[in-house]
Fold this sequence. Notes:
This protein is an all-beta fold. Helix content is 0%, strand content 42%.
Amino acid sequence: MITSGSSSCPSIPEILAVESEKQVVEIALTAWPADVCTADLAPRTFTLDAARDLTGFTVEVTDGAGGAD
């Protein structure tokens, strides 16, 4: 997964749920725990292990507080 944001405080993705019947993957983005972040915009790549092939699944992303992004 590729996120973009502050290069010093990237959003951290985490798989919350995989719904096989609906073919949906729910991912939450949590803010990096830091007091001060740079005001730049940079991509950051993460590898998430779902322990299965998710080809064709829809990805739903929420923020760490549970709101939709």
